[in-house]
Amino acid sequence: MLVVGGGPVGLAAAMELDHHGIASVVVEPREHVSYLRPRAKTTSPRTMELFRRWGLAATIRERAPLHIDWSKDIVFCTTVTGREVTRLTGTLGLALAGSDVTAEPGQQVAQPIVEQAMRDALNRPESNATLLLGRRAVAFDERESTVVVTLEDEHGATSTVEADYVVGADGPRSAVRTAMGAVYEGSSLPRPNISITFESAELGDLIPHGNAVQYWVLNPAAPGLVGRLNLSGTWWAIATYRPDEQDDDGDVDATALVHRLLGRELPITVIATDPWRARTLIADRFRNGRLFIAGDAAHQNPPWGGHGYNTGIGDAINLGWKLAAVVNGWAPPDLLDSYEAERRPIAQRFVAAAAENGRTGPAVLAAAAGLTAATAAATDEAAAVIQEAKRIEFHSDGLVFGLGYSEYAEVQTTNGSDYVPVAAAGNRLPHTWLPTGQSLFDRLGPEFTLIGPSWHAAAFARHAERHGIPLAVLDDPSLGLDAFFSDRLVLVRPDQHIAWIGGPVPDAEAARILDHAIRGEWRQQP
Question: Where are the transmembrane segments (predicted)?
Fold first, then answer.
């Protein structure tokens, strides 16, 4: 298996393949992870659940400079050192620790830290993955049963590698997407933005608002965001600017932009800048033959809501277990057709949600225009607008947990914010804490799991054994799962989504249910 691109999505694909005992080679031009640009900073609770399957969640929390309890707030202010207008609390899934919804709340952590944690895991002696760094894929020759890929190193020397399948996680300029003949559909927003990494030893002591995950600056002429990367004086900022603020080379004064957000001309050192435009793009296909794309190669999200990187991790898990099932011989190649069928609609939902979050900006800034009066009434009015407009952006459990795959998947959210778990085919398995103190998810097998009494599961187990389908049966009356699932049997896929739910069935029907499940098809009893 060849994975093109060693960012978080490509590494996640290799991690998932390794989780199922499949060897892979990851091709990545960068020999070392760079910490200059944080890029994604929000790891959602759902992504942390998936990391937990690999034993990686605890490592990421240990390496994150900002502990989960450091702050769960988003502050809206006139400037970072100016007046607070309002704040959202318990944001980004950070307040879910100890809840019944999940065993893993979200985590604020810069993308390079996540990448390095995955690299370290894949470099362990027992890993089935090989990281081939300092190389990029430049050509793809798909044959009857393999793909021959030409690699090029930094000196222009070429070599080839042959793989059963290729996963393209090589970003917006994806060579794999080009080789597939796939194209982006969508648009880019016209206003330019710039991400800035900077150091300031003084800033932390001058902020009057207390700790926050993000500080949103409500300056209609020059809005932006600022946040901490660590407690040692390294910060990130996102600023917008006017075209007339660019010099003849197209550059902008990053220091001046940061000072404008801070509201004071503090001594700062700009470490890195990264100009960008918000893009809402989705590839017209996610697969062509033995070539697949995932993450930014398949879809580009605006950053509003923090869904882009998390959607990519979901792609990697969905595709990874299916490739492993086919290569291991217990699922037919038809299963791979379900990758695009399942993940492209999810990408569309998250791209649309991010775009909608971005469209609330003008209303927020219009309300902020009245803040120059500095009156309590003006502040209250602006605060009310912000709370209404931005709630869904930072409280999105319904999107994070509630999106399902099949026609049977039941809506688990009314507005994307609230989440009411429903046990239905296609949905993520509802989480619960067991009397033992364990998470239900920790009792699931690495492949398929059937939850229910063993005498009802026997028909499934017989068919699974005859056809080599890995199936674990979770039958422990002391766990109280019969009551939790209303005395129904629950067939759970490797990605923690429900493949089927219903009552006892005869052998022939159990066989049909399993055969549908390993093809990525869904069944549910009325």
Answer: none
pTM above 0.85, yes or no: yes
Find, among 360, 359, 361, 383, the residue nearest to 371 by Cα.
383
Enumerate domains of the chain plus CATH numbers: 2-66+106-187+281-355 (3.50.50.60), 69-104+190-277+360-403 (3.30.9.10), 404-526 (3.40.30.120)
Q: How far is residue 243 from each of residues 240, 249, 253, 303, 514, measured CA to CA in Å?
A: 10, 12, 12, 21, 58
Residue pair 119/34 in contact (Cβ under 8 Å)? The answer is no
Cα(139)–Cα(159) distance, integer angstroms: 11
What residue type is 395 in one-letter code?
H
Q: Which H/E stretch holds residue 455?
A: helix 454-467
Tens digit of pLDDT at every position of the chain (526 positions): 999 999 999 999 999 999 999 999 999 999 999 999 999 999 999 999 999 999 999 999 999 999 999 999 999 999 999 999 999 999 999 999 889 999 999 999 999 999 999 999 999 999 999 999 999 999 999 999 999 999 999 999 999 999 999 999 999 999 999 999 999 999 987 778 999 999 999 999 999 999 999 999 998 877 999 999 999 999 999 998 877 787 766 789 999 999 999 999 999 999 999 999 899 999 999 999 999 999 999 999 999 999 999 999 999 999 999 999 999 999 999 999 999 999 999 999 999 999 999 888 888 888 777 776 667 777 888 999 999 999 999 999 999 999 899 888 888 988 888 999 999 999 999 999 999 999 999 999 899 999 999 999 999 999 999 999 999 999 999 999 988 999 899 999 999 999 999 999 999 999 999 999 999 998 766 5
Q: Quote the distance between the C-alpha of residue 60 and its chain's center.
A: 14
Amino acid at 294: A
Residue 401 tokens, joined: 């947990």
| Paired sense of beta strands 147-153 and 2-4, if any | unpaired
- Per-residue DSSP letter, 428: B
Query: In Å, how far are 210, 300, 302, 305, 347 from 281, measured between CA atoms?
Result: 37, 5, 9, 16, 10
> At residue 236, what are phi and psi to the nearest 5 degrees?
-120, 155
Of 101, 6, 19, the C-alpha closest to 56 is 19
First CA to last CA distance, the chain: 40
Write the Ramachandran bin of 345: left for phi over 0, alpha for psi from -120 to 50, otherwise beta. alpha
Helix intervals (H) in 54-174 = 57-63, 111-122
- Which residue in this structure is represented by tokens 């595709």? 319
